Amino acid sequence: MISEKASQIGISPTLKISAKAEAMKAEGIDVVDLSVGEPDFSTPDNVKAAGIQAIEQNFTKYTANDGIPALKEAIINCLKQDFGLTYALDEIIVSSGAKSSLYHLVQALIDEGQEVIIPAPYWVTYPHSVSLAKGKVVIIPTKEEDGFLLTPDQLKSAISPATKALILNNPSNPTGAAYEKRDLEALA
């Protein structure tokens, strides 16, 4: 019933790991579950109150596909204040989450056979998104002694004429490794 490409994806590795962690906890094993990117605390009261207020004020209609302008302005101001970065309104997109945004981005950019470089360890969603676009996943293992950061030499050696993109998450999920500005400039 579903497409051949979708049937090859299988069960979410994140959910498999989460289920395993829950089973281990049920056996009395002390487990720190890092599988699902969900906080271990309840939604703060001020956030819940703001959501309730928005509903009571009938702020319940569709918004612009790229986000509410006031929110985009707040993001622009935060990026300027916290990081000294300047962006225009049309350079900011607000989405419902990283997984769907990544999927749509890969679908828009990658054609069949084009390569996408992914440093490992990586978020399990990356290869699936590339495979669904019929792209070729190129995994580059990073090393603990390099802080699990991709090096310029590793990147250079992985680039081929078929390379279309590099997925670089900063800070890295799952290692937490963070690239400094100079690291990113060296990779660029």
UniProtKB/TrEMBL annotation:
One of its GO terms (biological process) is amino acid metabolic process. Keywords: Aminotransferase, Pyridoxal phosphate, Transferase. InterPro entries: Aminotransferase_I/II_large (IPR004839), AspAT/PAT-like (IPR050596), PyrdxlP-dep_Trfase (IPR015424), PyrdxlP-dep_Trfase_major (IPR015421), PyrdxlP-dep_Trfase_small (IPR015422). SUPFAM superfamilies: PLP-dependent transferases. The keyword Iron does not apply. Its cofactor is pyridoxal 5'-phosphate. Residues 30-187 form the Aminotransferase class I/classII large domain. GO terms for molecular function: pyridoxal phosphate binding; transaminase activity. The keyword Transmembrane helix does not apply. Belongs to the class-I pyridoxal-phosphate-dependent aminotransferase family. This is Aminotransferase class I/classII large domain-containing protein.
